[in-house]
Each structure stands twice: as C-alpha cells, then as structure tokens.
Design goal:
The protein has helices spanning 69-76, 99-106, 116-119, 126-136, 144-154, 171-183, 201-218, 229-235, 253-258, 263-270, 277-280, 312-316, 340-345; strands spanning 20-33, 38-53, 58-62, 84-89, 92-93, 109-112, 189-193, 221-226, 238-243, 246-252, 322-324, 328-330, 347-348. The protein has 367 residues and is α/β, with parallel strands linked by helices. It is globular and about 65 Å long.
Length: 367
C-alpha cells in the first residue's frame, strides 16, 4: 500500500549526490629561500574553492594564465596534494588517501593533457600506449589488441594505426590518441586541460565534436579547463571563472555570456574577438593591467586593482559568493547586469570562502 493510499504524502525523490565535490579546497606552494631552504611565503594557487560536478555534466573552468585553474584540475586527480579542504568522489573522501588507496579512484578519473606531443611517449607505439591502461585494469593480454583497435575506432582513428609512433600523427590525431588512452580505463570523469589550445582552429572543432559525441554515448562527465571562452561556451553546461586562486563567478553557460555579473568575467568576454559586426561596434573594455602577486594577495576583492567599478569597500572586504536566481553565483560588491528583483532574491552561497564578508551587494554595509 502506498503512502497516497493511506492518506499520507508520497515521499519526495532523493536528490542525486554529486559525482565530485570540491569543498573549500586550498593549495599553497611554499616559497623557500636561504641556505636552509626555509619557507618565506606561500603561493596561493587555489584558495578556498567550493564547487560540485554532477553525472554527465561538463564544467568549464576559465581564467587568465596563472589563475590556478590547472592546479585545481591536477588536485582533483590528486596529482597535486591539497593543503586544506576536502575532495569527495561518489561520496567518498579522497583528500588524504595514500597511493594504494587511490587506485580505485584513479581507474574512474583520467586526464587529457594540453600538449599531445609531450604527453605521449615517443618511444612507444600507439598500441602500447593505449594498452598500458588496459593492463593496469587487469585485462588479459590476449584480449588487449582487440580492445585497443576498438578504442582507436571510437575516437575516429583507423585500427591500422596501432603500430605507428606518435610522431607519425598530426596534432589532432595525437590528441585523439590521448583521448583513447584516457578511455582505456573506462572512467566516469575526464579532466581536459586545455585539450584544443595547441591545435589548429579546424582541428579544434573536430576534437570538441568528438568529446561531445563520446559524452553522449558513454555518459562521461568533463572538467574542461581553457582560456578560450569561445570554445568553452560550446562544450560546457556550467562555467566557473577563476581569478588569482578564487572562484569569482559560476553560471549556466549561456547565462554567463548573455549577462556576466562579475566585472572580470565581463572584461574576459570583451577580450574575445567577435565576428558579429553589430556586437563588435559596442564599447568593449578588455581587462587591463597585470594581476597582483599570488604570494601576497591583496585584502578585499583580488580584482579591485584592475576593476573600473571598484570602491573603497572592494579594497577592504572580500565579497562573498552570492547566489542569484537561475543558478548564477558571483563574488562582487558591485554586480553587473543584475536587476533590483535579482538583488532582492540574492543570498550568500554556502560555497562562499570563509575569509569573505557577510554583506549582500546593495546593503548598507557593502556600500
């Protein structure tokens, strides 16, 4: 007998747990000096970052060079050890696991690197490169050649390429080999560290289409790290914008491009070449100046020194990460493209850094 039949209410469906949870993650690199190598300062590569990834989702991660996006990606794979915070995969805390205990996790998470030439062993044939992942999974040696050929066909390469060396391929083909190597482990999550930045524009489209097709067929989740916002737009469900180790904005992909809230995001979008003549005629203000040192981040908003809208409160108080309607988050005392109704509905997000203030934009304390 159901709850409805007995007069009670049917229970609400259980919320789907995130595939990956990044909880107030921090990565500091020591700066050593002197004969004794004492730590004099720390590089704040990732500084109190919180974000989740669901099954089948693509999260774009963008920002200038040095903002911490690649360090965050490597830390997700535990290639870099976090200094603070927590990482959870399928609900299991992997933050402090040792190498042996990480093996089951690493079978489910793989990485495709930026430079396909540097990431493939030039002394190994393609078949050997891909079958290494199969061996680690425990597949019998007699079954590996057939599976390698299947993987090559899956990424759009001929199975006859199995005996070629990496230097015999074009850049786009090498990146396809890198994708096949990642797929050999049958992962649920693939971290893509600028996978198309070293490729020609026409080849970029082919690789992006391949990744999209593989996601649909295999149910993969992606973290797509890039500095090219035009590429990220077409592959991402959500986009997170990083600046000097901090997340400054998170938004559904289209909403980020139609109404960026943080001035840094607005400046990044103004830096992207636009083929549309009508949009190109509007006043564009690309980001100016250089970011401050990551070893001594300024107080308040880290973008304040380059922001045309900054006021005294921006230089004194770190803005909290605020949740606006539509799943849009931004950390700014003076948000852009936000209506009065949006401000009235805004709340401070639980993913806001512990060091941030507690005043909403537009409040007396934030003015």
């Amino acid at each position: 007998m159901t709850a409805t039949e007995t007069g009670g209410e049917a229970p609400a469906p259980a919320a789907t747990a995130p595939l990956l949870e990044i909880d107030h993650l921090q990565v500091l690199f020591p700066v050593r000096a002197g004969m004794l190598g004492r730590t004099r300062a720390h590089v704040h590569a990732v500084d109190d970052v919180t974000i989740n990834l669901t099954e089948g989702e693509t999260l774009g991660l963008v920002g200038e060079s040095g903002c911490g996006k690649t360090t965050l990606a490597r830390t997700v794979l535990r290639l870099t050890k976090p200094t603070g915070g927590h990482l959870r995969f399928r609900g299991n805390d992997i933050t402090a696991l040792g190498q042996r205990d990480l093996r089951p996790f690493r079978a489910e998470v793989q990485m495709v690197f930026q430079d396909p030439q540097a990431s493939l062993n030039p002394r190994k044939r393609v078949g050997q490169i891909i079958s290494a992942g199969l061996a680690l999974r425990g597949m019998p040696e007699k079954d590996r050649p057939a599976r390698v050929r299947e993987l090559l066909a899956q990424v759009g390469l001929s199975p006859e390429h199995v005996n070629r060396f990496p230097h015999e391929f074009s850049g786009g083909q090498r990146q396809r080999v890198g994708v096949a190597r990642a797929l050999a482990a049958e992962p649920r999550l693939i971290v893509l560290d600028e996978p198309v930045s070293a490729l020609d524009v026409s080849i970029q489209a082919q690789v992006v289409n391949l990744l999209d097709d593989l996601q649909d067929r295999l149910g993969l989740s992606y973290i797509f790290v890039a500095h090219d916002l035009s590429v990220v737009r077409h592959v991402s469900d959500r986009i997170a914008v990083m600046y000097l180790g901090k997340i400054v904005e998170v938004s559904p992909a289209e909403a980020l491009y139609s109404r960026p809230i943080h001035p840094y995001t607005e400046a990044l979008l103004d830096s992207v070449p636009i083929p549309d003549a009508e949009r190109a005629r509007r006043a564009r203000k690309p980001v100016q100046g250089d970011p401050p040192s990551a070893t001594a981040p300024p107080p308040g908003c880290r973008f304040a020194g380059r922001c045309p809208h900054a006021t005294d409160v921006c230089r004194r108080v770190e803005p909290p990460l605020v949740a606006y309607p539509g799943g849009h988050l931004a950390a700014c005392h003076h948000p852009r493209n936000v209506s009065a109704e949006d401000l009235a509905a805004a709340v401070i997000s639980p993913s806001s850094p512990a060091s941030s203030g507690d005043s909403l934009p537009g409040s007396e304390a934030a003015l």
